[in-house]
Amino acid sequence: MRKKEKKKGREVSKSESRRAVKRFGRKGKSCGFHCIKIKHIGVRIGTEEILKDVNLHIHCGNLTAVIGRNGAGKSTLLKAILGELPHEGEIVFTDLRTVGWSQEEAVQEANRLEDTGRERIEQPEKIEGLRIGYVPQSLSIDKNTPISVYDLLAGYVSRRPVFLWKSKRTEEEIREQLSIFEAEGLMEKAVCDLSGGELQRVLLALATMPPPHLLVLDEPAAGIDQKGIAALYEILNRIKEEYDMAVLLVSHDLEYVKKYADRVVLLDKTVLIQGTAKTVFESEAYQQVFGRG
Description:
By secondary structure, this protein is α/β, with parallel strands linked by helices. 35% of the residues lie in helices and 24% in strands. It has helices spanning 14-24, 74-81, 103-116, 149-157, 168-180, 196-207, 226-242, 254-260, 277-281, 284-290, and strands spanning 4-7, 10-13, 34-45, 48-59, 63-67, 88-95, 132-135, 214-218, 246-250, 263-267, 271-275.
């Protein structure tokens, strides 16, 4: 009998755990190697200025939540990051391994910058391609569309037409991927029959094939009940901690943001304030946007 290790209330086999680590990276605290800098991003649509001089610093292993009133430019910011909208400024991805830093040096430097309140790493940057996974608010699929969860993921990872035969290797890969998001039992279910929470877990599995440096989510809890929202944030918290993934999400679920976000960005066409949840939620800028009490 295979030994099992406990994880968040479900049993995970040793082999499954090793495969997940291989797919996503070393489990544990943030490696400190990766960071994404969003520098002076601005977006205009016609004569209207939607975003102005937005600057963010996103670290691996952290969940950054963007909050703000309706029309503040939150979704526009995500579209700019995804390259769906032309914009001013630049997005810089830094991998300190490419400039010869060890993991210990990278973590020490990250801690030093955090202690001093500085953001700039005094080291030449080496730019590589930034892999981004994206989870939209919803997926429009007509009722009775005969597409299973397996078909959806297999169509992305396999070169074989999904209507032919199932590849045992592809089936195993998809099952392992879904298991990371506690969705392996949904593999044969029709996508059109998934609940909101089930669909989001499937879309998370799809967005992380292959594992991205940055996972972007646009109001992922929209249309999900409270139980589903809690489960979604637990999953996001687990994967960013265990698999060293930077997560950037737009959210109106302020209580969950307060509980789970490592950093919070209050946006209103530009960054009004950013920092820990405590710093932002207790700020005058937050009170002006959302009111007191």
